[in-house]
Predict the structure of DUF7779 domain-containing protein.
Amino acid sequence: MAGLIHRRDWSISEFMEMYNRQLQKMHGVSGNGSINALWNISFNSLDPQKDEIGLPESLKFCAGNLSFWNAIDDLLSRALIKRDRDTKTLSLHRLVQTSYKYFMTFEQREQSFSDAVSLLHLAFPRHDAVAQLYQKWNRCMELLPHILTLKDNFREEIATARAFKAPPFFCELNNLCERYLLETNSLPSSDKTNDMLSSVTSYKGQLLVRIGKASEGVDIQKRSYEIRTEGVPENPREVAWASENAGNAIATTNQFSESIIWLERAIDIWLRWAKTQSQEKDVYPAVLKKSYGTVLLWMGCGEKARTILEEGLRQIESTEPYSWAMAAYTHFALGTLDRQDRNYITSEAHFMEAQNMWTFGDQLRTDPFNASCMYRMGCVALDQGNLEAAINSPAEHARCVFKLSEALHQEPRYESEASRLRMHAERLLCEINPEAAEFGDELAYDSPVNMHGANLEPNVDNREKIQYLCGVTSIVQ
């Protein structure tokens, strides 16, 4: 490489520009007078047996410690890879990666891609019994960069050779990855709605609900349910989750009666399936209880909602592994219910516990649910006349700005700041809802937020029926 730069009198930036623009030519696909020549001797001298990567046949050597370390020894001795003893990770320079890529034939590249997919597919966590990955976020986060690299490699290969094929489980791996990204609010928005299978359709629908396009999301979630019911053989658990997702999306559009129909259908499907199992024949998951109880709360059925939510929380507390996310959501719903009943002390305790549960599991403060907890704690503080706490808690979005302006307005020293924030909140509300006419009601700022954030019927009289801020729908696998 240094020789190329020296002979052609390139600067480093000129070399990198040429390298990035004409990668294959710079590596020399068909010649030895190139960067490839640096490693060709090492590549050619590798033991063919150690080229068998796959837990299909090709990766069998990974299954045994001795054979695996024999292969690693071979690569380390030729300086093709490096090993960090502290982190116990292996790495190789991207020039070595690229050179080896062009050292391989098309067939070898296709097989190597399939092998890499096999490894990641085996390593990536599967969702739990309630179709969630919350307990396994750390492992998912470690593997995500590798999956994204595979995706980039696939696009690069398919662009140069349409005959390049990926194994079927590459799609499943991407679906699992989408599930993780959706749970962490990291899934990018997309306008493409091609014919997708139910899992992908469900992710699309939930994403639309989360970004404020609830009506579109409802249509897609209903389609996801239809796809699940058409499965042969039918998978009752997945049909139940699809029905719950549709119910949650419908609740976001304030159609609570219809939402209850979908949620009760999900419960009925689950219980019918449970009767065919050896245990827990009359029990349905706490995830469903969280959704069902929350919508009952919004409908004004407070007593029944409390019974369902408390039952769900007891179920969560007695189950291993502990579902911190579902515990957080359920505490949040109970806090909302207590605030409605003007039990401000217990309401604040539930919101604080919801935030503690979330930060314990997620270990990040950037998720919308954390902002939601802060917002509600600020609301409860303001309800109790605790202006200092109320001023410090609300932090984001139009309703947070509105509530902050209300808190500041009660403190004479901040009257001008309160007026400025109120005007800002009204501008934000107009951007979200150009038809907005009422700017002095908390409900007006709650309504645009998705089903787990607000969205109440305009004619609901009880201002205290306030929902979650963020999208935390239960997601189909």
Notes: DSSP finds 22 helices and two strands in the chain.
